[in-house]
Amino acid sequence: MPEFCFCKDAVGLVIMAVKNSLLPDYIAMVVVILIAIGTVFVFSASANVTQEVSLQEFYNSTALRQILFFPLACVLLYTASCLDYRRFALTAGWFRCLTIYLLFISLLLLILVLFPQFGVEINRARRWLRFPLGPVTINFQPSELAKWTIIFFLAAFCDKFGDNIKSYWRRFVPLCLVVAAAVGLILLEDFGTAVFISLLSLLLLIIAGAKWWHILTPLPFAAIAFLAAVAYHPARLQRIIAFLNPQRLADSAAYQPTQSLIALGSGGLFGKGLGNGICKYGHLPADTTDFILAIIGEELGFVGTFTVIVLFIIFVSLGIVVVMRCDDRFGQLLAGGIVLTIAVQAALNIGVVTVVLPTKGIPLPFVSAGGTSMLLSAIAVGILLNIAKQSTQKPIG
After folding, report:
1. Could you give the 3-state DSSP secondary structure of residue 166?
2. CB 11 within 8 A of CB 3
3. Mapping DSSP to helix (H, G, I), strand (E, B) and coil, where does residue 285 land?
4. Could you please report the per-residue DSSP string of 191-255?
5. How far apart are CA 208 and CA 349, in angstroms?
6. SS3 category, 182
7. Are 371 and 62 in contact (CB under 8 A)?
8. What letter does residue 140 receive in the DSSP assignment?
9. Cβ atoms within 10 A of the Cβ of 273, count?
């Protein structure tokens, strides 16, 4: 079976990386391949028989914009890998830590995006800031920056205070209040990202060694916020109902997941061929973003989707090796947070596309269209590469 051979090659790649100390190179290679796949299929999914490509409207085209983001992401990946990751730690002091400045900037941008004078409403959600730069306009999503900033802040905070993180009122509660402030601002306009950041924060606190009963105390407040957010937007409740009963709402709330399954199923084993898919012609909404994997499945079949999933598995495996080799607690927490973020986000997106989870706007890392997500993820992986470079070459196991 070709899939089995591919799995053996993937395992061999991880073992070779461990033996030859080429972790940064292999991680970068996997990420660049994922970005390249995303660029190709965003271009394919953007195909429109009634639209002509105009270089004068270059930046207004999703496909052409993604082509521009590809080399930029590679440059940012390399540049971030040269930045000492310890500059994000709190060991040198609060005001010498880059994470604290990123936190203030993130909270400020999350507040600004709520005002009509600054925030831009797209698809009935105000999640973007728009910056005009001459003939082009750049959209920036503050919640993506906040997501990575919270991960960096949790790693820095838990590293600085060590076992004192188990002190409920002095350490745990103030930390939760910071996370709650960011999540609360995001929750007003971006339900999926808010839940995602809350989940990541919970997992990272468990990894950092927080007490279980401490972690359980914010859950009732989170449940109340979740129910209020669902009640405030009836469309969110409709998505949950559609997930539980997709056949009854196949023409309305369950339309996207139904079309996603049609795209995946029609691709078969080897797909219809690159560019030959038909679901992208108005049948599958969000085909370049949340459901890009369905387009890959339609055009490259099971082999294509399996390859993408295996690439993410390789990335996570190599990331775990970085965590195990690092002898610095902050480096371990930060590397773990970066790998966990990419892994959970990919798993959630794949779950939505395969209708294992309710539909929500969580993009597939490195593959889905969207400059903010791709570029910030590339920077985060660049920091992971720096951790890998500086890790002590100690034996595993």
Report:
1. helix
2. no
3. coil
4. HHHHHHHHHHHHHHHHHHT--HHHHHTTHHHHHHHHHHHHHH-HHHHHHHHHHHSTTTTTTTTTH
5. 26
6. helix
7. no
8. E
9. 12
- Strand, coil or helix: 30: helix
> Which stretches of the chain are assigned E, i.e. beta strand?
119-122, 125-133, 136-140
**pLDDT per residue as tens digits for the range 96-106:** 899 999 999 99
Angle at 355 between CA 295 and CA 300, to 5 degrees: 25
What band does 28 get if pLDDT is binned at 50, 70 and 90? very high
- pLDDT tens figures, 119-172: 887 767 778 888 777 666 778 999 999 999 999 999 999 999 988 888 889 989
φ and ψ of 93, to 5 deg: 120, 155
Contacts of 314 (CB under 8 A, 6+ apart): 10, 13, 14, 26, 30
Burial class (CB in 10 A: 0-12, 13-18, 19+), 202: middle
The DSSP 8-state label assigned to residue 272 in this structure reads: S
Give pTM, 2 decimals: 0.91
| Residue 187 burial (10 A CB sphere; 0-12, 13-18, 19+) | buried
Q: Count of residues for the chain?
A: 397
Strand segments, DSSP code E, in 21-143 are 119-122, 125-133, 136-140
Of the candidates 151, 168, 154, the residue with the CA atom closest to the CA atom of residue 218: 168
CA 374/CA 114 separation, integer angstroms: 23
Rg, the chain, Cα only: 21
Report pLDDT for 176.
92
